[in-house]
């Protein structure tokens, strides 16, 4: 299993959500919320019946979360799991013909591409209050990214990061020196796991800081011609160091498997991977000195959704303190709902304190808006890297 297989600065975006290091650590601590308290909202008129077809992320255990939602509303959850954003997008397009999906959960940087393909309908903010969310996730640039032509197409669910997961014995890392460049260090040949497009973005950021790109890396998100000019250089450099890559991951299951069974000691992975792997062995998670990649995940409503009222109930549940806390716990990520930070587990708080020491939170690098044309090109570059 040592061969390479395909398993696949907008920092201001959430600055308001990161009011202080102390507050964010409180927010992160909600991952370990012990359980669901009594609901702080009333049941709907149809709460004893109905179902909702929800397409979300594979690799997580939502059984308790779904059971709690059904117990509180009477609505049955039909869950369709997918490994990544690209597959979610493809299945959403298919659902226009099949009607299989009511609500789905991409990241906010993909909103524009869904709007361009006319796949979704806007949320009615008279039915779901934006006051239920942490302000930094629904206002400012975060709020702008969630809207198209003044219509809100996206409401948040969880947010988190993608940074360095490392074996503390075989690949020790320390904040301040830990770098995205470590992924390409020859001493880790055959021992690194990455997501292809994230690895290219990581290398692009490193090369940008070193002055080795023909133009600023962020220009590639604004113009396709600039993207090609930049990513051609990045891809060529990545291919030179491809021997480092033991495995590519697309979802949480593959990322964890790379450390368990494929000999990886270093990876660019989600925070949930680091949190889960530390339970199994000498692994930890640290933000690189360049800043961790950060993402904001949430819900969009299919244009042809059949169970619209039930979809609203699910979104409202996840915006409630207890629903938001339980959802964040399932993802090992950060919650979006106000009050969820009060449901905390000290062990998880300690994990995040270690992952984001000193000025790490102020350096978070939020994924920019990515158009359909950019995503198409990015996929082509990722495929070339995998196939090289």
Describe the protein's architecture and organization:
Strand 6 and strand 7 (151-152) form a beta hairpin. By secondary structure, the protein is of the alpha/beta class. The protein folds into two domains: 12-159 and 294-345, D-Maltodextrin-Binding Protein, domain 2 (3-Layer(aba) Sandwich), CATH 3.40.190; 161-293 and 367-387, Periplasmic binding protein-like II (D-Maltodextrin-Binding Protein, domain 2), CATH 3.40.190. Helix content is 37%, strand content 18%. It is built from 13 helices and 15 strands.
What are its keywords?
single chain; D-Maltodextrin-Binding Protein, domain 2; 13-stranded mixed beta sheet; two-stranded antiparallel ribbon; 18% strand; disordered N terminus
Class from secondary-structure proportions: alpha/beta
Task: Specify the biggest β-sheet.
Answer: 13 strands, mixed
| CATH superfamily caption of the largest domain | Periplasmic binding protein-like II
Domains (count): 2
- Give the CATH class of the largest domain: Alpha Beta
Helix count from the secondary structure assignment: 13
Q: What name is given to the CATH topology of the largest domain?
A: D-Maltodextrin-Binding Protein, domain 2
Number of strands: 15
Assign the CATH architecture of the largest domain.
Answer: 3-Layer(aba) Sandwich
Distance between the termini: 18 Å
Mean pLDDT: 87
The proportion of strand residues reads: 15-25%
> What form results from the Cα inertia axes?
globular
């Amino acid at each position: 299993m040592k061969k390479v297989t395909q398993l696949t600065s907008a920092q201001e975006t959430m600055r308001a959500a990161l009011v202080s290091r102390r507050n964010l650590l409180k927010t992160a601590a909600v991952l370990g919320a012990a359980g669901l308290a009594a609901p702080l909202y009333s049941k709907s008129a149809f709460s004893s019946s109905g179902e909702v077809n929800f397409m979300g992320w594979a690799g997580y255990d939502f059984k308790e979360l779904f059971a709690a939602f059904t117990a509180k509303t009477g609505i049955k959850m039909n869950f369709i799991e997918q490994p990544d954003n690209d597959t979610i997008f493809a299945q959403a397009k298919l659902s226009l013909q099949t009607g299989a999906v009511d609500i789905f959960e991409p990241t906010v940087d993909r909103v524009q591409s869904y709007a361009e393909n006319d796949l979704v309908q806007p949320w009615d903010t008279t039915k779901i209050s934006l006051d239920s969310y942490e302000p930094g996730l629904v206002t400012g640039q975060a709020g702008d990214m969630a809207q198209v032509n003044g219509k809100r197409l996206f409401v948040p669910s969880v947010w988190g990061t993608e940074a360095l997961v490392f074996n503390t014995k075989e690949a020790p890392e320390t904040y301040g020196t830990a770098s995205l460049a470590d992924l390409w260090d020859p001493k880790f040949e055959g021992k690194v796991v990455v997501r292809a497009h994230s690895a290219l973005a990581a290398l692009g950021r490193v090369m940008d800081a070193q002055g080795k790109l023909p133009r600023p890396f962020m220009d590639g998100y604004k113009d396709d011609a600039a993207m090609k000019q930049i990513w051609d250089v990045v891809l060529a450099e990545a291919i030179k160091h491809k021997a480092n890559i033991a495995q590519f991951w697309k979802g949480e299951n593959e990322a964890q498997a790379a450390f368990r069974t494929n000999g990886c000691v270093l990876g660019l992975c989600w925070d949930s991977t680091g949190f889960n792997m530390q339970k199994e062995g000498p692994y930890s998670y640290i933000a690189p000195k360049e800043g961790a990649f950060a993402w904001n995940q949430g819900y969009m409503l299919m244009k042809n959704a059949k169970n619209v009222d039930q979809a609203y109930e699910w979104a409202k549940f996840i915006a409630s303190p207890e629903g938001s806390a339980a959802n964040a716990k399932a993802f090992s990520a950060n919650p979006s709902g106000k009050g969820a930070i009060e449901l905390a587990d000290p062990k998880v708080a300690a994990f995040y304190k270690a992952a984001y020491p000193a000025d790490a939170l102020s350096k978070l690098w939020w994924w920019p808006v990515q158009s359909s044309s950019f995503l198409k090109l990015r996929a082509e570059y990722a495929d070339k890297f995998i196939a090289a």
